[in-house]
Design brief:
single chain; mainly alpha; Arc Repressor Mutant, subunit A; Tetracycline Repressor, domain 2; 2 domains; HTH-type_TetR-like_transc_reg; DNA-binding transcription factor activity; transcription cis-regulatory region binding; Homeodomain-like_sf; HTH_TetR
């Protein structure tokens, strides 16, 4: 049997901690997760956690980063599988709001992360989403599909509105009903940008 290198062992340890944390944060929440219980569940010690992530907050940041990457991948797939760029953009926006109802995303990304990691972390994590949206809007303007305006400013308005709505849905007492309301309002908002396409239903 080939012995694992030190780097492979470190990578494996890191993955174990993130996996265990993701499970715990997603079920019982960040505040109620004991670091001693978490590390013991994967045969490790607090020392390993401190070595890789600094503290519990650092571990949460890594879990959020992993979930964010998976969300981005799903949204990118939705965009590329659409019939055209506009449909891809609309479906991406709608899917993002729907994700706010997924228990893991709801608890970890939309509830615990903002309060524990702060606005600075949230803004930093949104930078890639903002850049992607701005570029998509710029291309849609160039293609003559939507009204021409400053694409970066428009991206900030739309991205900020979507993020705020996701937070609202994550804390709603009637998430399914509120999602339906949000999607109807989103359709009205996006239809207002169109130049050449038939309005969405």
């Amino acid at each position: 049997m080939t012995r694992k290198t030190r780097q492979e062992m470190l990578t494996e340890t890191r993955a174990k901690l993130v996996s265990a944390a993701r499970q715990a944060f997603g079920t019982i929440g960040y505040a109620d997760t004991s670091m001693d219980d978490l590390t013991a569940s994967v045969g490790l010690t607090r020392g390993a956690l401190y070595h890789h992530f600094g503290d519990k907050k650092g571990l949460l940041a890594e879990v959020v980063k992993q979930i964010d990457a998976e969300m981005d991948e799903k949204l990118a797939t939705i965009s590329t599988e659409a019939e055209n760029a506009w449909e891809g953009f609309v479906c991406r926006c709608r899917a993002y709001l729907a994700m706010a109802l997924e228990p893991e995303i709801q608890r970890i990304v939309l509830r615990d992360a903002p309060s524990i990691l702060g606005n600075a972390y949230w803004q930093s994590s949104q930078s890639q989403c903002l850049a992607t949206m701005a570029e998509t809007l710029r291309q849609l303007m160039e293609d003559g599909m939507i009204v021409k305006t400053d694409h970066e400013a428009l991206a900030r308005l739309l991205n900020g509105g979507l993020a705020d709505t996701a937070f609202w849905l994550a804390n709603s007492d009637a998430p399914e009903a509120d999602l339906s309301k949000a999607l109807q309002s989103l359709t009205a908002l996006l239809n207002g940008l169109l130049l050449t396409k038939e309005p969405l239903k």
